[in-house]
Amino acid sequence: MLNANITSSIRNRQDFLSFLEKFIKDYKSAEDWENNNLESFLEGMLSWVEDADGYYENINETEVLSNPSWRLFADILIASTMYE
User: Fold this and answer.
1) Which pLDDT band, with edges at 50, 70 and 90, does 51 fall under?
2) How many angstroms separate the CA atoms of 6 and 51, rounded?
3) Which element (helix H / strand E) includes 62?
């Protein structure tokens, strides 16, 4: 499973595209994804986005939500693989 720290280096669209390539490879071997079907993945996404304020407060990066970026998209995708 991809580590959530991988997203901190995403600064632009090309970085995000590179992340997506890794994300797809991870999915293909996703035995450890908790949300490994579309329904649970989307439910995890919904729940995480609702709770994202707390996540970014805990890591002292509250500006991520106020300035949506390619990194935020990547964070959402990673969290959706496991968040309930």
Assistant:
1) very high
2) 20
3) none
Residue 31 reports pLDDT greater than 80: no
CA atoms within 13 A on the CB side of 66: 4
- The Cα 20–Cα 59 span in angstroms is 23
Q: pLDDT value at position 80?
A: 95
Amino acid type, 8: S
Cα 52 to Cα 40, 65, 68, distances in angstroms: 18, 8, 12
Secondary structure in 3-state letters for 25-41:
HHHHCCCCCCCCCHHHH
Closest CA to 52 of 37, 40, 34, 68: 68
Q: What pLDDT digit, counting tens, does each position of 10-21 carry?
A: 999 999 999 999
